[in-house]
Design goal:
single chain; 365 residues; 13 helices; 50% helix; 13% strand; globular; disordered N terminus
Amino acid sequence: MLLSLVLHMYSMRCVLPAAVLLGTAPTYVLAWGAWRLLSAFLPSRFYQAVDDRLYCVYQSMVLFFFENYTGVQILLYGDLPKNKENIIYLANHQSTVDWIIADILAIRQNALGHVRYVLKDGLKWLPLYGCYFSQHGGIYVKRSAKFDEKEMRKKLQRYMNAQTPMYLVIFPEGTRYNPELTKVISASQTFAAKEGLAVLKHVLTPRIKATHVAFDSLKNYLDAIYDVTVAFEGTVDDKGQRKEAPSMAEFLCKECPKIHIHIDRIDRKDVPEEQACMRRWLHERFEIKDKLLIEFYDSLDPERRNKFPGESVNSKLSLKKTLPSFLILSGLTAGMLMTEAGRKLYVKTWIYGTLIGCLWVSIKA
């Protein structure tokens, strides 16, 4: 019975973070909605500046839980940019936590409010969040033949015209790598071999469309591309085989002791512009990722496993950057829920905010 209680308490460790992160969403959306209305007749740069600041507040609270609460150790390798830049962030994709990794790097450059994602089209239906991500500068894309290149270019041009700071996150694989989904991996490897490309082991064959459109649209606005490779420590089974990366819930249950992040900063001028050349270039970048991950997971030398080559920096995030956001948003939400009028507004925001958001994205996003 005691063991059952311990296991139950262990599984409950993600409940508090999840309750706060979801519970504060209506408060955040109300604050953002108020500013959206107030700024309707102002130049777009004023709206964008405050929206970026609001986004920074919410994502700082997210990092309070994903870094400070979990106590995860962040180890950085390679190039460690410290100043804000307009960039495209390209990373391997293996977990829902990958979205948070971009925040982890951005906050260390004081660029957290500038993070914008290229997202799978289906995510636009998320209650409250789906509509807001589009409003913040996120771009929803469909796969393969349904990919709307013209619409993506139009949105990126609009952001560029407004001089929107850009920390654009793209996962070129298009779906998460899961070593247990052997059919997905096999199909990816078969496609690479058919196209005369190197067959990859620990990542999927990258897709070129979104990356090329983003770079081609922003090439005169960007400073660099960040090529980011991520490995979660503790994702190897007793037989030494790689297993599935932790989900958000598992991560919040403190099942990942360390995250290893390797960054290559590639200057804009070193990236090929023509799509066929960029396709080859992108695949070569993923070959480099694959070699890093082979070293991390499969090295015959135990001293070289569970780390990337080169020196690492243990980067600890100060509570000063995250705790105030947690206190502000949770305090405002608690204050709203303490009154009957506040509770009604809270519920209506969840209901009508979701309905209006879904209607908006069905037309606009």
